[in-house]
Amino acid sequence: MALPGVKCTVSSCRYWKSGERCEASAIEVNVDGGGTSARASEQTNCHTFQSK
Ligand code: SF4
After folding, report:
1. Does any ligand 1 atom lie closer than 6 A to the CB of residue 3?
2. In this structure, are residues 23 and 2 in contact, taking their beta carbons and an 8 Å threshold?
3. Which of 8, 15, 46, 47 could pair covalently with 24 via S-S, beta carbons 3.0-4.6 A apart?
4. What is the spatial distance between Cα 49 and Cα 34, in angstroms, rounded to a whole number?
5. DSSP assignment string, 9-38
6. Cα-flanking dihedrals φ and ψ of residue 17, to 5°?
7. How much is the pLDDT for 21?
8. Is 48 in the pocket of ligand 1 (CB under 6 A)?
9. Predicted local confidence at residue 28, as pLDDT
């Protein structure tokens, strides 16, 4: 079952399903490089990602 409200384009992730859906039970999003302060969306990423 897809996570409601999550749109993801990372098709190489094992949790990704067609229609830009994520079928993980939950996701963890962090700041690139560590810390807790991002200034742009490009500085954040999904750490639940697993390659297929
Ligand atoms: S776990 Fe993260 S990268 Fe993988 S499909 Fe879900 S949102 Fe995308």
Report:
1. no
2. yes
3. 15
4. 16
5. --TTBTTEETTTEE-SS---EEETTSSS--
6. -130, 155
7. 98
8. yes
9. 98
